[in-house]
Write a structure and sequence with these properties.
alpha+beta, 430 residues, Fumarylacetoacetate hydrolase, domain 2
């Protein structure tokens, strides 16, 4: 399937959605209720329509039937078997040698004519902190002599986020108000954040869950992953600095989190799995429940990540978006399997449709940072844009665009689509 081509020409060589990807999402078209589809080239394949035409059978048909109601939760719960069966049948229907082209074409819609929605109902959202370069960069700003706290290399750090404010790409990002302590003042004030930031992250969708009180063994944790997306954990740094001690992020993070709307499956990402980067000499060995040799050999993902910005001024004069950063998921100190094993280690119940964020994935060098907090050294140094503008933190009208792509010699490249969000000032709200 590596070199397979589709009869749908826009899929061949598509930057994100060739035949080898086939991510799932929820879309609406022409005022109809949201339903589940697959991204292929510049089109969306309507899965309920495909099922109604009798083009799917067996486990694949069961999988699409589970998507009734326009959400992927029940599909996620089914696990790998139905997901593999559906993927195989979709690829057969879309390959250039398919005898079903005429019947399948009727189920295709132009992506540009569709609206995309959250792919699943998220019951719980956990944001981790596994980007070690980001942790070191931020730690150096606030604790130059001790950037990483002692527990970082023993335990995957995370916090419980706010599932109700997760939104699909394109939803406006309302500038939040909050309590902060301005420099030089003795008491806090309540005002709109002046230090709005983005965070470049990978999102992980949970498939089959675990029973309460039953931890997931790390060697089986991968079976509980339904797919991946891009995630922007918008952050109000001034609110965060005031509230985070002693319990960590709260209102500085809960106003909105943006995700890319397509769920890229583990099967699509299989060619881009690789060994987890070796731990530096002297780093502690993880406890046994967090260690699996196969996971270390194949548990990492090689995904190139980018952050772009489009300001209101840039759009007004016709300038294209400017790239701010290029990083990689190889910046993750812990694997996804380690995150699941640790999250469930106390018996915590994970459920289909739960979402994990990786934490900010920065590289070690300028040009690889995943937040303005790092790029501007905490707001001390302005970031100069090619448009002549400068940024310490985000201004109203700024749009942040996250992109993720996978490349490997001999394999078709795949991507995630975009994760966009445009900052909306207080005066813009209805």
């Amino acid at each position: 399937m590596n070199g397979a081509r589709s009869w749908l020409e826009t899929a061949n060589g598509h930057a994100d959605f060739p035949l080898q990807n086939l991510p799932y999402g929820v879309f609406s078209h022409g005022g109809a209720a949201p339903r589940v589809g697959v991204a292929i080239g510049d089109s969306i394949l309507d899965l309920p329509a495909l099922l109604a035409r009798g083009l799917l059978y067996g486990l694949a048909a069961d999988a699409v039937a589970a998507m009734a109601g326009g959400t992927l939760n029940a599909f996620f719960a089914m696990g790998q078997g139905p997901r593999l069966a559906l993927r195989q049948q979709l690829q057969e229907l879309l390959e250039e040698t398919s005898q079903q082209r005429a019947r399948v074409e009727c189920c295709l819609l132009d992506s540009a004519d569709c609206s995309l929605h959250m792919p699943a109902r998220v019951g719980d959202y956990t944001d981790f902190y596994v980007g070690i370069e980001h942790a070191k960069n931020v730690g150096a700003l606030f604790r130059p002599d001790n950037p990483l706290l002692p527990n970082y290399k023993f335990v995957p750090i995370g916090y419980h986020g706010r599932a109700s404010t997760l939104r699909a790409s394109g939803h406006p990002v309302p500038r939040p108000r909050g309590q902060s302590l301005p420099a030089g003042q003795g008491e806090p004030t309540l005002a709109a954040t002046a230090r709005l930031d983005f965070e470049l992250e990978l999102g992980v969708w949970i498939g089959p869950g675990n029973a309460l009180g039953e931890p997931l063994p790390i060697g089986r944790a991968g079976e509980h992953v339904a797919g991946y997306c891009l995630l922007n954990d918008w952050s109000a740094r001034d609110i965060q600095a005031w509230e985070y001690q002693p319990l960590g992020p709260f209102l500085s993070k809960s106003f909105i989190t943006s995700i890319s709307p397509w769920v890229v499956t583990p099967e699509a990402l299989a060619p881009f799995r690789c060994a987890q980067p070796s731990r530096p000499h002297g780093d502690p060995q993880p406890l046994p429940y967090l260690w699996d040799e196969h996971d270390q050999a194949r548990g990492a993902l090689a995904i190139d990540l980018q952050v772009w910005i489009s300001t209101a001024h840039m759009r007004s004069v016709g300038l294209p978006a400017e790239r701010l950063s290029q990083s990689s998921t190889l910046a993750m100190y812990w694997t996804v399997a380690q995150l699941l094993a640790h999250h469930s280690s106390n018996g915590c119940q994970l459920q289909p449709g739960d979402l994990f964020g990786s934490g900010t994935l920065s590289g070690a060098q300028p040009g690889q940072y995943g937040s303005l907090l790092e790029m501007t050294q905490g707001g001390k140094v302005a970031l100069q844009l090619a448009s002549g503008e400068a940024r310490r933190f985000l201004e109203d009208g700024d749009e942040i665009i996250l992109r993720g792509r996978c490349h490997r010699e001999g394999y078709a490249s795949i991507g995630f689509g975009e994760c966009r969000g445009r900052v909306q000032g207080l005066g813009e709200r209805a």
